[in-house]
């Protein structure tokens, strides 16, 4: 990243003063370094990531950004670093539909391993090929994305439906096993004591 930063600085100086020989020499040297390190592809990748996540003002200080913008900068940083294991926590938060669609495509082609924590089932459908589910302290694994996992999930682990019981108030008096809800008000002893104060 240092080579890219030096190139950007040299380009800016050379553009500001094209007749300056020192600026021209610095630009030529920075250009050669970029070519030698094959940094042109990296620079293109960085600019693509930043643009797709709507990070356009590269001179703005992090402290002046909103919370959502800071999250996008953090996401961009980790995508640019391209680690072997990319761990993301709710990556679709603070992204619009276009950015989510781009991120799905980007992660589907990602060379390393992904560990994603998310409640976005549609995102999981498009990005994952193996799911680990932590449910009531137990870990379950599934091959495939979210849709096949939801079909393979044992029915006994699905949340049981609550049945009305006689000690629980019900809205309808006609359901078997229900007792009508009691009217709630002040206790009669409190009503009596309030009446005596008047």
What does this structure look like?
The protein is an alpha/beta fold. 48% of the residues lie in helices and 13% in strands. The protein has eight helices and six strands; from the N terminus they run ααααβαβαββαββα. It has helices at residues 2-16, 21-36, 39-52, 67-81, 97-108, 121-127, 146-152, 188-197; strands at 85-89, 113-117, 130-135, 138-143, 169-170, 179-180. α1 (2-16) packs antiparallel against α2 (21-36) and α3 (39-52) runs antiparallel to α4 (67-81). It is elongated. It starts with a helix and ends with a helix.
Features:
alpha/beta, disordered C terminus, 6 strands, single chain, 48% helix, two-stranded antiparallel sheet, 198 residues
Number of beta-strand segments? 6
Relative helix content = 40-55%
Low-confidence stretches: 191-198
Which strand-content bin applies to the residues?
Answer: 5-15%
Instruction: Characterize the largest beta sheet: strand count, sense, and whether it forms a barrel.
Output: 2 strands, parallel
Regarding quaternary structure, what we see is single chain
Estimated radius of gyration: 30 Å
Write the H/E string, N to C.
HHHHEHEHEEHEEH
Mean pLDDT: 80
Shape: elongated
Helices and strands, with pairings:
Blueprint: H1 2-16, H2 21-36, H3 39-52, H4 67-81, E1 85-89, H5 97-108, E2 113-117, H6 121-127, E3 130-135, E4 138-143, H7 146-152, E5 169-170, E6 179-180, H8 188-197
Parallel strand pairs: 1-2, 5-6
Antiparallel strand pairs: 3-4
Short description:
The chain has 198 residues and is an alpha/beta fold. The protein contains eight helices and six strands, in the order ααααβαβαββαββα. Strands 1-2 form a two-stranded parallel ribbon.
């Amino acid at each position: 990243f240092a080579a890219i930063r030096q190139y950007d600085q040299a380009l800016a100086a050379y553009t500001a003063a094209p007749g300056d020989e020192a600026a021209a020499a610095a630009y030529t040297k920075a250009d050669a370094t970029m070519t030698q390190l094959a940094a042109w592809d990296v620079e293109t990748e960085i600019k693509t990531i930043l643009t797709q996540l709507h990070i356009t003002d590269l001179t703005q200080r992090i402290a002046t950004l909103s919370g959502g913008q800071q999250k996008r900068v953090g996401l961009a940083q980790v995508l640019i670093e391209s680690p072997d294991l990319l761990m993301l926590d709710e990556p679709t938060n603070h992204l619009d539909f276009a950015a989510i669609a781009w991120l799905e495509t980007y992660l589907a082609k990602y060379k390393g391993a992904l560990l994603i924590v998310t409640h976005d089932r549609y995102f999981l459908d498009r990005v994952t090929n193996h799911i680990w589910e932590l449910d009531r302290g137990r870990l379950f694994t599934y091959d495939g994305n979210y849709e096949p996992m939801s079909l393979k999930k044992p029915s006994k682990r699905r949340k049981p439906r609550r049945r009305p019981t006689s000690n629980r108030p019900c809205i309808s008096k006609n359901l078997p096993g229900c007792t009508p809800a009691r009217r709630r008000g002040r206790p009669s002893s409190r009503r009596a004591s309030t009446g005596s104060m008047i």
